[in-house]
Amino acid sequence: VGLDPLLVAAPAIGLLAGAILALRVVPLLAELAERVLGTRSGLVAPLGARQLARRPLRYTRTALLLMLAAALGTFAAAYSTTWTRSQADQAAYAAGSDLRVEVASFPDLPLWAFKEAYEGVDGVERAMPVVVDRFDVSDGGAGQLLALDTASLPAVADIRPDLLGGASLADLAAALEPDLEGLDPIRLAGEPVSLMIGLDTALENLPLEDADGNLVFAGPFPETLPVGRVSAALRDGAGIVRVFDGVGRFQAAVAGQEIEVELTEELASGGTATPHYPLELISIQLLLEPPPDTRLAGELSVTSVATQDVAGLDAAVDLVPSRDGWSWLLERGLLAPEPAPAVNGRPETVAFAEERPIYGDEGSIELRLLPDSLIEVAERPLPIAVGRSFADETRVEVGDVAAIGSLTRRTQVEIAAIMEAFPTLDPVQPFAVLDLGGFALATYARSGEDLFADEWWLSVTDEAAAVVALDADPYSVETLTSRTGRTAELTDDPVALGVIGALAIGSIAALIVAIIGFVVSAVVSTRERLGEFALLRALGLSTAQLSAWLAFENAFLLAAGIVGGAGLGVLLSWLVLPFVTLTREARAVVPPVLVQIPWLAIGVVHLLAVAALVAAVVAIGGILRRVPVSGVLRAGQD
Hints:
Elements: H1 5-23, H2 25-37, H3 44-54, H4 57-95, E1 99-103, H5 114-119, E2 124-136, E3 142-148, H6 153-156, H7 169-175, E4 186-188, E5 194-205, E6 208-209, E7 215-216, E8 226-235, E9 241-245, E10 250-251, E11 257-262, E12 265-266, E13 272-273, E14 279-288, E15 295-308, E16 314-316, H8 321-324, E17 326-332, E18 338-339, E19 342-343, E20 346-352, E21 358-359, E22 365-371, H9 372-378, E23 382-387, H10 388-394, E24 401-405, E25 410-419, E26 431-435, H11 436-447, E27 455-460, H12 463-470, E28 477-482, H13 483-490, H14 494-528, H15 530-538, H16 543-580, H17 599-625, H18 629-637
Parallel strand pairs: 3-26, 23-25
Antiparallel strand pairs: 1-27, 1-28, 2-3, 2-27, 4-14, 5-11, 5-15, 6-7, 8-9, 8-10, 8-14, 12-13, 14-22, 15-16, 15-20, 15-21, 17-18, 17-22, 19-20, 23-26, 24-25
Helix pairs in contact: 1-4, 1-16, 2-3, 3-16, 4-13, 4-14, 4-16, 9-11, 14-17, 15-18, 16-17
């Protein structure tokens, strides 16, 4: 990709053309000043205005020089501040937060332990999980999906309000908050290290015939044959559903079994991985894995649930399915979950009749005991913020309900906001952002799976310490993006810095030349009009009145040049800078450029102009005080 020569030349062309056009305004302003001031009492103001209106061309050269200097200085300062702000915006957009961690595909930490681990790192203040996914769009392409913890979003992320349609991060987080009213999980007291789940099983192997009708029956299998696994789905302190696996397998036909589900894990690198407390019990899962060539029937019952703390003390969990509105779901392979065959009056039990047994050759069967309210809540549309490209392509508006996802997993969503862009996402491609907690609940209710947080966005108080710590085990950092580091990298572009330096040198030189030219022009103009001033002195004007007259003329000239030039520079900045501020690869920057006008620098230019006016007035006053009135008049007569 090459640079457009017109873009390179545009500032210079615009500067010169604008200054020339602005000069056409100087005579008009002089005539206006004459009309306004000509009727006033006194001599100074009417004389000054009359002089400007009679001879406007005398002042155009100096005015042009002042305009060019002021416009160049304003444009140079605006380019510098705009470019610097743009690099910082690009870095913030690429990082999303102070630090962005991309987690390795095979992490050393369990999925449920990352939040506590990252927030325990020296220098890290808060960690926000982010799930990166894709979804189908109408044209057969793929959209970008970010599911993130909206409760942490305002404290962690760094996003320009204009990219969010003028809303703040707090407004966006509130708009994306899912409707979880009615969800009634069971709160686990304290900080348990394990769950103890009691089971009664009574499964038997039934006779089985092959395709030819021959009996395939190896006989009853042992009652202690391991036939399945236990796991528990818990909602952590961040509202994210996490699945914890039990230790060992449960047996086929044994009453009073107790399976431990560990909620912590000893790490090979030392230390203990813990979840983000407090925890809420969402579901108990039983994964049946019958041996091949078997046909199972019988009952499975969850008889008790208890927590165990670090001291080994048990505390019973008050779970009564019939009272708390819990029931069983059954999932066979890729089929949608369906109600499991329950036993009347015993909702903690699921039964498989001989007429509809479990076949070992059909693979595993998953049973989930969960609150009915979870299914009801998961069916509600999730609030979602979509990109402008997505909205234009699908023609959706705020308040519309749609479904996103792939062919096999669709999520109902309601459009809560339309954004121009969102950090780390390509705004040209369709994208969507939603709350991770709500998305995790919907995903679990649909498939019984928890989500892998591909990224973690971190807010830090000591970036150097955090980077050093994250580089070690067991944090499983694949890629680490630093906003500060990215900003330093982008602002170290020698080409852009060279342009800024050249503009700065040129504007300073032009300003010095313009001020010198202005003072010299004022002095020379005064000397050329000594005869006129001597005559006015003879008619009764004082030196102070003559000085005020000339000060008025030069102040008008200076104001027209500096103010007009500054206005031209501001206009040129607004028109040109969004198009000439590019990446190193000469591509349009993301996010779009926000033009920054350095009013302080413009104020400094105006102060220098006032200083130049004072110098000119002092020089003119000195000349006027030394004018020999009689001598000049006699010389003029001769």
